[in-house]
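Thread: Newbie trying to understand structure tokens

Hi all, I'm a second-year student working on a class project, and my supervisor (Dr. K.) asked me to get a predicted structure for one chain before our next meeting. I've only ever worked with sequences, so writing a 3D structure as a token string is new to me. If someone could post the tokens and maybe explain what I'm looking at, I'd be very grateful. Here's the chain:
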Amino acid sequence: MRVRSHFKSERLAKNLSLGDLARLVGYKNVAKGANRIIRFEREGVITDELLIKLAKALDIDWATVEALAQQDRKEHVEAWTEWADEPVPMKLVLRLIAAVYSTCQLPEEITTPEKAERYACDVARMRRMQVCLVLNRRKSVWIDADGTVLRRTEATPFGGSNEPWMQLKGRRFLLNCKTES
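---
Reply by user tm_fold:
Sure, no problem. This is what the structure looks like when written as tokens:
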């Protein structure tokens, strides 16, 4: 957030509109350029090429950009670590068909990762479907339809989701189901 905030502050300090800045960085289609700049200022989404052009146009030293980016990365990792360390219940994600998943809570008597993994392997074998046992926000166990553990994964701050999900019109979600042994 520091990088995008700094760039916006510099643009405003120089009394440049989004269109003015789009022209300065070389956009012939000013509206398209302005939209890309506003997306950067609001969401932080930007290409390396545009970031370099904006830094030059706004006369922002590249060392400043790197220092702000480093602070952003550090804050992101700290926030992600705090979020990832929050306890959440273990759950089972079933692969119903390609790209369609359903999530199920584990029975109350399943309280340890070892018991959960045995249960997940049994469910996969009985239902003949792939499953993902989500142990916490960091760790998941992926199990094949025959009940064999395929892999164990661990999420990282920049690695994306650690469990399967579906996406429809840009929204990520999972279907809910009732667990039946």
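A couple of things are worth pointing out once you decode it. Residues 91-176 form one domain. Helices lie at 2-13, 18-24, 30-43, 48-57, 62-84, 113-127. Feel free to ask follow-ups in this thread.
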